[in-house]
Amino acid sequence: MLFSKLLPREGNFFELFNRHADCVYEAAQAFQLLVRDYGDEMLRNQHDEEVSSAERAADRITREVNRLIHTTFITPIDREQIHGLINLMDDVADLLQDLTETMALYDVREVGEEVRRLTDWCVRACAHMRDAVHLLGKLSDEETAKTILRACEDIDQIESNADREMRAAMSQLFRQKGLDVRELIKHKAIYEMLETVTDKCEDVANHIEGIVLESS
Known about the structure:
This protein is an all-alpha fold.
């Protein structure tokens, strides 16, 4: 009992969630710039490092949150909810980093409009995720809870749009005559990873919805 009194009684979980969501959005924006400037090797490498830097910062925050779960006596929301949220968010950051590494490892020489459009959906999903996370600390306000749920609904819609975009891109890819099989495999993998980013954002949104509904 004495030991428990020595432990912090809230921690700064919501602040850490906010910082992590900002890192994910920064990684998404940097990846969008990487795609935009893909033909310029110097800029591409610069944006690649920006994605990596944001992902590393997100990893540090994830470790800090998971440490705080075990060293905080009273948490603002359920410990499992905290653990689930930060790790789902970190999955998004990791996947954005994986995308940059995969494009380099596969020696992707150029990206088309399909990749740009899918990337745009990823950035939108990450933006709405960031907005929802930033409001979690104000859940006691009913209007705020409604705003969070609307942001989660927007992410669900974005995921559906990205899924349709990916299927259209795949259809076009497989219909290209004379396309080298290796190039087909490379682009198929990139399309799928981009769509998975929006899937992961939807996982975060579903988790946030659960937090909101259980707290209301």
